[in-house]
Amino acid sequence: MARIVVVGAGVGGLATAARLAATGHQVTVFERADTVGGKLGRYAHDTPAGSFHFDTGPSLLTLPEVFHDLFEATGAKLDEYLDLVPLDPIVRHVFPADGPALDSCADPVEFATRIGAAFGDRAAADWQRLWRRAARVWNASSRDILRRTVDSPRDLASLAWRVGDLAAIAPGRTLRGLGRRHLSDPRLRMMLDRYATYTGADPRRAPAALVAVPYAELAFGGWYLRGGLGTLADALLTRCLDLGVVVQTDATVTRIDATGGRVHGVRLAGVTAPVPADVVVANVDALTVYRDLLPHPRRLAGLTDRSLAGFVLLLGVSGSTGLAHHNVFFPRDYDAEFDAIFGDPGRGVRARPAADPTVFVTVADDPMVRPAGHEAWFVLVNAPRQGTAAGAVDWRRPGLADAYADRVLDVLARRGMDVRDRLLFREVRTPADLDAATGAPGGSIYGTAGGLLRPANRGPANGLWLVGGSTHPGGGLPMVTLSAQIVADEIGPAW
């Protein structure tokens, strides 16, 4: 039996702790915040009309089998803890030109039919060809990448991909290039581009292999958890406590002790004595690990290319708007948005809030999260990270957050969804707020910008492991949960 310390009680940390405790290890979790969940945050707002409850992080659960596997591995059933609600549509796409919206769904034949009805038979045929290619990429990725350690480019190169897999993955091609090659309709190209933002990347630079992301969402479905996705954190905490895991909140780890090439424990703020450990699992951003907790210049190199961040509005809206659960309102010029968000430091062009951004609106039809006759809106806009460098924006600048919130509401109004005179309240969350709340450097949602190779799960000292969205296999709830499975399997059982 190993003494294991998990740093951070996000989904990755809690999932790892539960798996390790279920196999006989002695596990303690230290979390700097006063609650668990990490980026799976929540916010409640009381009004005379009643209480509103918001997920402030992920709003969609995909690959449900990953979570079924997690709970079964810890001796439980997912359905005993969580109420999964399938979504149709998964996402409603609203495009800038007049015309029909496009509702995605988990039935590929039905989705192709919807594309044909909205954009014509050629668009539907284009999508079906791309879908077949995406299936090959997904199958190769899920078989060779998502459930095993990938520590270096050499590991990727040595994977036993068949020639057909390599052709589908198209090394060196971008997601934007793949869309232009396969999709004739500009609206479908725009929809495909959006999936690069799932990894925090610019579609003009993101690898074509990210076509696996829409495949995973549309092949296995999108799901909502009744009561909000934050209930996943509650369920994982319950599993951990039932398995004997010690979870301490308001406990900040300041250092990982790793003299002599192996970990010995961690140090906590305000505590003189170190906490001994045979194994340390870090569920914090890899940049924070190698910059602050265990300084390592070689591992730190390359982690400064940060993913995009998010600007969020939490709105209490009176009445019903008829929106789907997830809605995307696209701009007329998608490239202008990416030019603004990422800037071009090499040419002296600073990042800035996009003037006409894509707006994501999540509205859960769930009486547990809003009073009768009202809606709780989670509004997300892609945004530059917090900072003062050329590729960032100082969101703490007085007046900026409120001014941009006004701008986002104006954009929604121009796109036919004006709720400015129906607001009971609005709360603003900037990348600076995410940085402060979760320790995500600059408020970057996915750590480093998306690509096939993420920081390795295996740390540079024996007994050190990394889990979470900034590490392999990537961001998003299922990938974070798979990182926990990878690490727990590598550590092995206590017996």
From TrEMBL:
Keywords: Carotenoid biosynthesis, Oxidoreductase. Belongs to the carotenoid/retinoid oxidoreductase family. The keyword Signal does not apply. GO terms for molecular function: oxidoreductase activity. It comes from the Bacteria. Pathway: Carotenoid biosynthesis. Residues 12-290 form the Amine oxidase domain. GO terms for biological process: carotenoid biosynthetic process. It holds the Pfam family Amino_oxidase. InterPro entries: Amino_oxidase, Carotenoid/retinoid_OxRdtase, FAD/NAD-bd_sf. The keyword Oxidoreductase applies. PANTHER family: PHYTOENE DESATURASE. This is Phytoene desaturase. It comes from Micromonospora jinlongensis.
